[in-house]
Recover the amino acids of this structure.
């Protein structure tokens, strides 16, 4: 999957990310929305609210609640996905919600709800990263106060080499995967998962790749929010 | 307009540069959440700005404004937050025996008790006076700390809207509709020969006399 010169199967270097495009305002009825393509991944995120939280039992008297629904479309993968929620989508929804709760100023809207729908239209590898990054752009587009945007990116290990932004083959046959959610202005972490084993040095290298990629992606997010689609 | 985009009802809510007033000391700086706006020393944080560890930080996406010592952000998209005394247009979303739930376009529904409703209403007769889906012109009477608000229909001109159309824009763009000293609105009323009510929650009711 990677040759002796450090060139990967798709022609990228170890620290290169796949091409990204971000577009905002793609769902006219939503308060904020975003379409993000990352390699052959594509996610559409719509944000509604803040609005009255129903049923009333989910209301919190001191803050708003985030209702994140991550879903992969049946046609998003080569094998048909069974429609509806499953264990994996629940897990991704949960970690995305936890990551976004760290940046959104929920205490400004007690007893209300902010609904975030993440729909994966095309999936390759790293859809949770695409979903989380696109969700933070959609929240900013909806005018929801946040202390920072969130950039999510994954690095991993293939053939004992640490590389950034794994594609499908690297994700399936690689040895490790380290997705991270980063607040690009402060460099703080809001989300970290690890699959597989990394040595301390490999972990540090993956960390560095993720931090560098986050700055690059953040520029595209700012460009998309401030007008014009980013390429 | 300096050749810039024109603010119209159908293009006022999204990023087209037509939002909000123009011209300031720092120019039209566009910011996104998390942007560092400099040292907070000598400045006050206005709308959409937070002071964190002695630095000013943007919380919203929009244009940076500097008025005196206050730094604020003119957001691209806002939601209405009720304040006591606001004239608002709401839709009835539900009712019980003695009150109505009113949707104001805010994060929280308001309540309209039977005692503050239009005229005399019998207990249990709320739906026969105003049913779900009806539009009403009312005033915010009270907003509690938990953001639950009470509206009233007791007052001059407060009524159920029986005819005309209700349009909606982001509340921070209302200044564009009203104009300086209400000039734009006055001209619009004269030209269209319509009764136009502009409410503080970004909704407008237009009725014709013909």
């Amino acid at each position: 999957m990677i040759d002796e010169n450090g060139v990967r199967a798709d022609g990228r270097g170890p620290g290169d990310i796949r091409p990204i495009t971000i577009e905002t305002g793609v769902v006219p009825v939503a308060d904020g929305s975003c379409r993000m393509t990352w390699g052959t991944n594509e996610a559409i995120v719509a944000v509604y609210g803040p609005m009255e939280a129903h049923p009333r039992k989910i209301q919190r008297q001191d803050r708003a609640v985030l209702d994140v629904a991550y879903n992969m479309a049946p046609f998003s993968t080569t094998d048909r996905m069974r429609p509806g929620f499953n264990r994996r989508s629940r897990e991704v929804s949960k970690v995305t919600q936890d990551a976004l709760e760290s940046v959104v100023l929920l205490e400004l809207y007690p007893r209300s709800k902010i609904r975030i729908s993440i729909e994966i239209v095309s999936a390759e590898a790293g859809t949770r990263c695409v979903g989380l990054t696109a969700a933070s752009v959609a929240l900013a587009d909806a005018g929801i106060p946040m202390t920072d945007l969130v950039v999510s990116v994954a690095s991993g290990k293939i053939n004992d080499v640490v590389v950034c932004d794994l594609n499908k083959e690297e994700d399936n046959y690689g040895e490790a995967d380290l997705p991270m959610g980063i607040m690009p202005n402060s460099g703080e972490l809001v989300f970290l998962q690890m699959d597989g084993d990394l040595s301390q040095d490999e972990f540090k290298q993956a960390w560095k790749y993720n931090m560098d990629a986050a700055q690059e992606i953040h520029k595209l997010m700012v460009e998309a929010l401030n007008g014009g689609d980013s390429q | 307009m300096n050749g810039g985009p024109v603010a119209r009802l159908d293009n006022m809510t999204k990023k087209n540069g037509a939002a909000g007033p123009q011209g300031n000391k720092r120019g039209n700086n566009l910011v996104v959440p998390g942007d560092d706006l400099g040292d907070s020393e000598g400045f006050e944080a206005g709308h959409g700005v937070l002071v964190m560890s002695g630095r000013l930080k943007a919380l919203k996406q929009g244009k940076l404004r500097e008025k005196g010592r206050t730094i604020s952000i003119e957001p691209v998209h806002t939601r209405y937050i009720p304040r006591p005394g606001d004239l608002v247009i709401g839709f009835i979303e539900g009712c019980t025996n003695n009150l109505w739930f009113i949707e104001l376009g805010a994060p929280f529904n308001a309540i309209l008790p039977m005692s503050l409703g239009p005229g005399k209403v019998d207990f249990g007769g709320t739906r026969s006076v105003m049913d779900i889906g009806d539009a009403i012109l009312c005033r915010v009477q009270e907003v509690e700390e938990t953001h639950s608000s009470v509206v009233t229909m007791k007052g001059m001109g407060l009524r159920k809207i029986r005819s005309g159309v209700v349009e909606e824009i982001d509340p921070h763009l209302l200044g564009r509709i009203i104009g300086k000293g209400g000039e734009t609105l006055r001209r619009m009323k004269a030209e269209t020969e319509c009764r136009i009510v502009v409410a503080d929650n970004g909704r407008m009711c237009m009725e014709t006399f013909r």
